[in-house]
Amino acid sequence: MGLLGEGCIQRIPVGQGHRPNPRDLQEDSRRMTEASRPRLLVAKGSFDSMGGGERDLIRVLPAINRLFEVTMATIQPSPELEEVCSENGIALIHPESKWELSTDPISVVLDSGRGTASKAWASCSGLDDAMASAMAIHLVSGDGSLPILDHVPPGLRVHLHLLEPHRGLYEEILHRRVDGSPRRNLALTKVALSRARRRDQSLMMSLMSRQGAIVSCNSIFSTQRAHEVYGIEAGVLWPCVDIEEFPEDSSKDPENPYPENDEYVVSVGRASYAKGTWETISMLSGTGLSLAHVGGGDEPSLEMLRTHAGTCGVGLWVAPRLPSPELVSLMRGARAIVSMAHKESFGLNPIESFAVGAPPLFVDEGGFRDTIVDGENGRLLDREDIASWHSALEQASDSNTREGWATRGRERISELDLTPDAHARRIWDLLCG
What we know:
By secondary structure, the chain is α/β, with parallel strands linked by helices. The protein folds into two domains: 22-240 and 418-432, 3-Layer(aba) Sandwich (Rossmann fold); 264-416, Glycogen Phosphorylase B (Rossmann fold), CATH 3.40.50. 41% of the residues lie in helices and 13% in strands. It has helices spanning 22-31, 52-67, 79-87, 105-110, 112-122, 127-133, 167-170, 186-192, 194-208, 220-230, 277-284, 299-312, 324-332, 349-356, 386-395, 399-416, 420-432; strands at 39-44, 69-73, 91-93, 136-140, 157-162, 214-217, 235-236, 264-268, 290-294, 316-319, 336-339, 360-363, 379-381.
């Protein structure tokens, strides 16, 4: 059983074969009065990156709040989080001074972020009261998240949504520059991070020793990684897509933000080796297609990518971050949505592509396999088979293929029931069922 404590309940794969009627969800929500909703503390360390994990939690918070009386806690809020909490009457707890993760080599080796995050959680006014009144805590993993466990009282039940084990501690991918070259000696880096790995394992052991602790991952791939890294058995709680945020109907789309007149593909995520940004540019060489990259990146990485794109004869347009309506317009106008990310835990982009009818072409790795069925609603492609990528890009230009993939993609969303309401109901079933 690995790290499973005697008091832990059996893990069940959530999100598979569990599809309540949306009308039932709405009626259940209406029947719940303010007084009858159990109190739930939702917590996540950082929202600074506003990546897929952050966007997914913000997307589902209103639905969770319809079933529970939610208090949201974080040590690094974002404007997007503050807005959704304000609009939905969700109390937001955070420190007076926003926590910042130190990323210099010494801080990383000493794992100073673990201590500073714990202190930041301790400084949050109202957090103790929120824990005292909550029936459980729904904790979403990420930078600064797990140290909240230092302050969670023994009797409070914890559900951890483990998006992925800390990749910087257990994989080499994050220790490479955007072109794949090592930032420093990888063997020495692995040794230097031994202390941080031990502390990470200790935090997970402290969670699993708690009475009634539950762990869910965001894909089948992530459950496998959780077992490999921590020795735990976890269920699956898939992320979701909001069809109002990513609508099928294009009539209300704003103007496409892409400034050029040529054909392009879209990639989403902060530019890095992990996201496969460099490889995507290499793959596009000779296709006549440009890359619209949404998510920005650090300036040295972006400069390397610009030089690489010029060498490959590939146009490159970079947007640091786009509001959802503009992202939808950009995606809808693209030849395809493309990702060559390395072992992505889930990836929101395939299901967002399904929703708006944009062809998804993704590397055949990681959590992409949970949603894309190769040849039916998109393509799953071998990283090294560049000819297959080029052939898939040609497929994506065919209107009949695009329409067929879009139809079956939306059917896949329905089949897996990847809606905010269903996500919230699965959390309810885990904690109250």
